[in-house]
Amino acid sequence: MTAPAGAPVLGLTGIDTFYGRAQILSGVSLEVRRGEVVALLGRNGAGKSTTIKSIIGLVRPAGGEISFEGNAIQGLEPFQISRLGLGYVPEDRRIFTGLTVAENLEVGRQPRRANAPEWNHEKLFALFPNLAAMTGRLGGLMSGGEQQMLTIARTLMGNPTTILLDEPSEGLAPVIVEQVAKTILDLKAQGLSILLSEQNLHLSTLVSDRAYIIEKGSIRYEGPMADLAENEEVRGAYLMV
Amino acid sequence: MSGAPHERVPVLEVESLSRSFGGVRAVDRVSFTLFSNELLAMIGPNGAGKTTCFNMVNGQLRPDAGAVRLNGRSILGLPPRSIWRLGVGRTFQITATFASMTVRENVQMALVSHYRRSRALWRPARDHYFDEAMALLERVGMDRQYDRACGVLAYGDLKRVELAVALANEPGLLLMDEPTAGMAPRERMELMQLTTGIVRERNIGVLFTEHDMDVVFAHADRIMVLDRGQLISEGTPMAVRSDRKVQEIYLGGSAVHDGGPA
Amino acid sequence: MADFIVSLLTGLSSAAAMFLVASGLSIIFGVTRIVNFAHGSFYMLGAYIGYTLVQAIGSTAVGFWAAVLIAAVAVGAIGVVMEILLLRRIYRAPELFQLIATFGVILVIQDVTLWVWGSEDLVGPQAPGLKGAADILGKPIPEYDLALIAISPLVLVGLWALFKLTRWGTLVRAATQDRQMVAALGVNQRWLFTGVLFLGSALAGLGGAVQIPKGGADLLMDFNILAVAFVVVVVGGMGSVFGAFWAAVLFGILQTFGIQILPNSTLVLMFLVMAVVLIFRPWGLLGMPETLGQAHPGPPEQPLRPALPRVRILGGAATALLLALPVAHLVLPQLVGAFTLVLVIEIMVFVLFAAALHFIMGPGGMVSFGHAAYFGGGAYAAALLVKFADAPFEIAFWAAPVGAALLAFLFGWFCVRLSGVYFAMLTLAFAQIAWAFVFQDMPGSVLRTFGIADEFGAPLKITGGDDGLNDIWPSAWAGTRIAYYYIAVGLSVAALWIMRRFLYAPFGYTLRAGRDSPLRAAAIGIDLTRHRWLAFALSGAFTGLAGALFLFSKGSVFPTTLEIARSFDALLMVLLGGVQSLFGPIFGAAALTWLNDLFSVLSYWRFLLGVTIIALVLLLPQGIVGFAGTRLGRRLRLARPEEITA
Quick one: B82 and B177 in the same domain? Predict the structure, then answer.
């Protein structure tokens, strides 16, 4: 796959993030361009989730800059960042288990945005046929795969231009991971930009244009996904494959 | 496989185990036998009943019907702590260790409980079963980090500590819920090699669930596949892999996992 | 039959205030995860503000109900102020600090209310248009009671519609489960929280205002309703508005019939019902299992290590100083006065009390909000033995720790099955019951019911109620100030050392194991419930020992030794000192006892204490001893390099 030459949508420059005294991220810089799927690869504890959380504002970086659609967003509250059109799909899904599928979607609803595809129930159910039949079901009574679909659908209800996908394949059966891959490609086809944090190299290879590898809180590799797929040395060094 | 001098005897026998939740049969008449010196993997799609099955064996959940026997003795209805006393070690999907204690103290706690000294009030805990704890840590390769707090340990190291803790009561059966979840591929293989080695030398039977097919096909002696509460396939990795039904409902087109023979 | 119906209706009407307060408490907890201790104070404010408004505009029916509603809105607004000024800054702080902060608010509101409305109880005016009595099956029943009966279901339906049918309600329910995720989906949760605080506080205010015609307003309303609201919420199920409704109805009816069977027995009956409900449904009638404490903020506690040489030397020096103090008093009486010795005895009593509470709170993660029950309970056990069995000091003294341990054994059986906030609320409810037991002289009242009198024909008093039990002194050998000083200091230092041994032994480690990971503890064969139960009883014994030292130093004991405020003192001491350190409670108790002593000469000292508490929570979230873990503490060699936390 060739990298599309879109303009930068999301950019991180020199992000430092701490938990207590422990520095989790040091000088993380990366970029997502319009319409692109970018993989952020690394093992557990490397700093993938912290990077994603730093972007959406759930964790406050101590230093560096984050820009999204031309706005400086570091230091903003999560809800402010989300309202700029940046969608967040958390790791471990975080479905509202006591709410029905329809109510889960309602929580995610935001006004439509000029520069992003608009989503409604019909359009979402076309993408996730499973959900259509269970709008009245409680989130807690769904299987892991269904929850993964719902968490993505819920974020789409906010009509985002860009999505942060945190480890969508974790804990899912291989067939479901295939579905996730299809969904990501569908969204990309609709013009969304996606930052995908993953450990699953197979999934990432399948859907991503470019990749970053993060290790001990720093970006160690950056390049087209196709190159990485061929570069056994880098994979071995940072991903322990 | 090392030349196992041990005799293979049935450790865990599960017969016709069933459990429903609100009218839905989560586990439907599942039967299997696990032998000593054997790694038995339980795989299947999400919601297939793996966790339910697992929790009925370890005592967290009571089955509606069926039998569970450990070394020929029924353990049905016993709480987890009593099942542990009968020689069942456990590791968790998300590691469960005592974060405010050192690596060695974590193992010492298991030993203290094993020797029924949990209510001892006077002699400092750190003087209890020191050498035994260190021996276990050495076996899992954590002896050099014995004095670090578990709260600051790397994930892969925590998994090793859990393994040492699980071995403290000299179990004949190990229950491992997604032992390699959240680890890098190479770490996964290392941990499973370590586990396999221990299983062979101590003649332990292991029942584990796992989502990483690379791990399953490389390390399981036998595989069971669950779907909608039922056991749909069981056999050697080779046999299960070539089972049409399994491919269809679980493994899929192999685009997202390594399909090659282990 | 008619009597029965009338009693039933009376019961239902008294459920109204309970339901309104409990549902507000439940809603606020559900979303913010803060148990708002100031909720009883909001109820009290609702009554006082309502009273003033009814005086001003309440001469007509419309005016009266307008006054009630305005009072509710006003209290809601006060809740909003508290949210914006205080709670917003501490949402990320550990649970306990939030509780302590709202406790500070209680103290502030108490003194502000005293200052504005004075200390006289206010008798509420009757509601215009509802002054008469309706005729039900030939029996009169106040019309106002019927109005109260109608209010609860109306509010219940309104709340149901608000939560189920509006977007705001959906967002609130989502935030109840995962507020971070709600924020990340673009919802400004700040205003969601503020709105919830408004709603919950307004419900408390409404509860206070509607009961003016029945109960008026007084300064004890806050703590009285708080314990009741806790019981209602625990029995109904935390976070369940419907549960709160049914529990309130249950207790309302119970109160009415209870009074007929046995006067002064209502709290005991509530306790019995709660006990029965919790045995069968540990999370209340309609509650869900709580998953509290899973997202524990802050870094994990450091492993226990042997004390550093410098810390040992400091400890030894402090002990030596304590032992030398009476000598100094004899040699230099003008420098070390008798009062100093008295103050040190008092400090050591509370150091022991705080350390005993810390024993289960720190290593066990069991935050007891009602430990005064064992402090006062022990003291009363000893005092009763002296009064009614003429037991000598040497025997009666030890009855305190034994009695307190037995009480903790009984209460603990219920409490240790729960955890987190449930545990806290249950311990508080039990303590309030113990308080009511001695305050209302329950045993005496039972004997009076059977007409049993003393030799002069007067009704029998057992605990003496408000008057307490007096004239209880140590034997002559222990009665001098210096002798008692050595007894108090010697016993408390010994008890501290023994507790420390326990915590370093497998027993204490197992306790911490259960706190760190109940799952893993069960998986290595630990019977956690039983272990926690034993720890609770041990803690009760040490607390009772402190109670004994207190009793014989004062010569008397009053119901105040069991009251909520006393439990909170101990809690505050532990928190101020720092819950993660074994030394924390020692410093916290010393500091707070001294501070209390300093403030108590001032009028409006509660206000000052409340403000101080709030300031400390905002400025020193690690506690005083958390200081040892700072860089400075490390430089002074009070902590190991790896133990730095801030």
Answer: yes
Check CB contact of C171 with chain A, cutoff 8 Å: yes
Q: How many helices (H) and strands (E) does chain C have?
A: 28, 2
- SS3 track for C312-333: HHHHHHHHHHHHHHHHHHHHCC
Domains of chain C: 2-280 (1.10.3470), 323-441+463-586 (1.10.3470)
Same domain, B45 and B56: yes
Alpha helices in C118-220 (DSSP H): 143-165, 167-177, 179-184, 189-210, 212-215
Q: Are strands B173-177 and B65-70 parallel, antiparallel or unpaired?
A: unpaired
Residues of B within 8 A of C294 (CB-CB) are none
pLDDT single digits (tens) C209-256: 999 998 899 998 998 898 889 889 989 988 788 999 999 999 988 888
CA–CA distance, B23 with C323 (Å, rounded to integer) = 71
* Whether residues B64 and B25 fall in one domain: yes
Interface test with B, best of A41, A175, A232 (most B CBs within 10 A): A175
Task: Choose from A68, A79, A141 for mutation: most chain C CBs within 10 A.
Answer: A79
Q: Which of B208, B139, B217 is nearest to B180 (CA)?
A: B208
Helices first, then strands: H and E counts in chain A:
10, 10
Asked, for residue B210, whether it belongs to a domain, the answer is: yes
Question: Do B4 and B62 belong together in one domain?
Answer: yes
pLDDT at B3: 46
CB C418 within 8 A of CB C366: no
Q: Does C516 touch chain B (CB under 8 A)?
A: yes
Query: Which pLDDT belongs to residue A1?
Result: 41
Contact C102, C33 (CB under 8 A): no
**pLDDT reported for residue C304:** 85
Q: Is C179 on the interface with B (CB under 8 A)?
A: no
Reading the block at residue A170, the tokens are: 């974790």
**Residue B164 is part of which domain span?**
100-169
When computed from its CA atoms, the radius of gyration of chain A, rounded to whole angstroms, is 17
* Inter-axis angle of helices C309-331 and C338-361, nearest 10: 150
* Structural domains of chain A ordered from first start: 35-58+77-239 (3.40.50.300)
Beta carbons of C255 and C14 less than 8 angstroms apart? yes
- The two tokens of residue C349 are 């009593």
Chosen domain end from B169, B200, B219:
B169
Is B113–C526 a contact, with Cβ atoms under 8 angstroms apart?
Answer: yes
pLDDT tens figures, C500-520? 999 999 999 999 999 999 989
Q: ipTM value, please give it.
A: 0.93
> Structurally, how many domains does chain B consist of?
2
Whether B92 maps to a domain, the answer reads no
Q: Are B119 and B149 contained in the same domain?
A: yes
* CATH number, position B33: 3.40.50.300
Closest residue by Cα to residue C625 from C593, C586, C594, C584: C584
Report the DSSP beta bridge partners of residue A10. A32, A68
**Cross-chain Cβ contact B185/A143 below 8 Å:** no
Distance, in Å, from the CA atom of C331 to the CA atom of B193, rounded to the nearest integer, reads 75
Helix (H, G, I), strand (E, B) or coil at B233: strand
Mark yes or no for CB contact C185/A154 under 8 Å. Answer: yes
Residue C292 confidence class, pLDDT cut points 50, 70, 90? very low
Which residues, 6 or more positions from C273, have their beta carbon under 8 angstroms from its beta carbon?
Answer: C235, C250, C251, C254
Q: Rounded CA gap, C198 and C80, in Å? A: 5
Lateral strand order in the sheet of B65-70: B24-35, B10-21, B65-70, B73-74
Q: What is the mean pLDDT of the segment spanning B76-85?
A: 92
Alpha-carbon gap, residue C128 to C46, rounded angstroms: 19
pLDDT of the residue at C259: 75
Q: How far apart are CA C10 and CA C252, in angstroms?
A: 8
